[in-house]
Amino acid sequence: MHSLSRSKNLYLLVLSNFMTSIGQGVALIATPWFLINSNDGSAVFGVVAFTVNLFIFCTAPWFGVFVDRYSRKGMMITIRIVLLLLLAALFALSYLEQYQAPLMAMYFALGSLFFILNQSARSAFIQEVFDEGHYAKVNSIMEVEGQAAAVVTGAIAAVMLRHWSLQEIIMLNLGAIFVSLAAVCVVSYQHQIRPSEDKPSFLSEFMVGLNYLCRHPKLTVFVLSSATPYNCVQTGNYLVPIVLVVLLSEGAETLALYEIIFGLGAVVAGLTYACLFSARSPTQVILFNMCIFSLVLVAQSFSPNLFTVIWLALFLGIANSSLRIARNNWLMTVIDPVVFGRVMTTIPSLFLGMKAALIGVVVFVVENWGPHAAIGTLCVFQLLSHLIAWYSYRAGLSYGVQQDALAQDVPQKA
Predict the structure, then answer these.
(1) So what's the pLDDT on residue 295?
(2) Cα–Cα dist 158/388, whole Å
(3) pTM of the full structure
(4) Which domains are delineated in the chain?
(5) What is the tens place of the pLDDT at every residue in 257-308?
(6) Where would you find the membrane-spanning parts of this chain (predicted)?
(7) CA dist., res. 137 & res. 271, Å (int)
């Protein structure tokens, strides 16, 4: 591909990702707010969030086997069709008033599951379709577009949470996913990685991603440590609404403002990443942004108020997105394409396992000591992870990991 500006695939991928981001955002903003404002809502949502993430942690790695074995475009189309069918079923059931809470829990589960599956398939698709020299630009564009969608979703949420019914929210999601499906179908694509004639079992393929990470412990420890900001952000989907309601006595408009400010920070990161960090290695960028994230959490822990929780979310958005871009660029460079789908599903699944554990701890802390203590818990986790990432970097990641060093342990038949 000679020019990104003339790439029809890039524009279609941006459109598809924009619409799915809106669809996901609708589900992941609306359902926590509705559940938390119901009877015993914070406890119910905590259990739902923990269970959903534990389920995804146990099942999502198998998706990477399909991503590597079959067409990556086909995988993106399949998960959208399945999501449309399940959303249509939820819409039909949403008129049963007595089942509103279980339906919202199922809606949240669908949004969370689609997020991890789509992220893995999209990353593998980008690696296969675009040249290695364009990874940084494409990932930055995807990040800007995704967070721009988060800003739009936050603005929609300001109206949606007050005036829309569950049926109207699901209808918006259905429309967004349908447009995303149409865009993916139009993408021109030729499957480049063919499965071996002697196919290994799904169990052995499932283990490829995990074995790949076990063979490179320094990379694995660094990557997992760098996931804590992401996990804190995701845990914030549960914690921030509780903080706003219990500690700050704020309403839905403030939650929408938080989503907008966080999204704006992420957009700024995507737009400025190439200019600010072009002279730095991805590992240095990751450590720098972990430092920014840690400082904001320290401020929120000492004094949770509208300034630290809402307005400093701008820097959380900048740090989280810069870190994600740097990590994606790095992993796309060092991981062999033959196993990329499996590894890039295993890594987010490990992230989800960590997130499930973190949500479980935060739910316990909220129920026993309140949301202020839960913010402090997130801060402690972040500081510890920052120290571990720094130690891993000093132990041998200062010059990155060469692809041939990683590829030498990849099975020939994968």
Answers:
(1) 96
(2) 39
(3) 0.73
(4) 8-186+199-407 (1.20.1250.20)
(5) 888 898 888 888 878 877 777 777 888 889 999 999 999 999 999 999 999 9
(6) 12-36, 42-65, 77-95, 101-117, 170-189, 255-278, 285-302, 308-326, 347-366, 372-393
(7) 10
- How many angstroms separate the CA atoms of 269 and 233, rounded? 16
The identity of residue 233, as a single letter, is: V
Question: How many CA atoms within 13 Å lie on the side-chain side of 148?
Answer: 14
How far CA 287 is from CA of 61, 138, 218, 324, in Å, comes to 27, 22, 15, 12
CB 49 within 8 A of CB 231: no
Token output for 42: 């914070």
86: closest CA among 110, 65, 108, 63? 110
Q: How crowded is the C-beta side of 338, counted as CA atoms within 13 Å?
A: 17
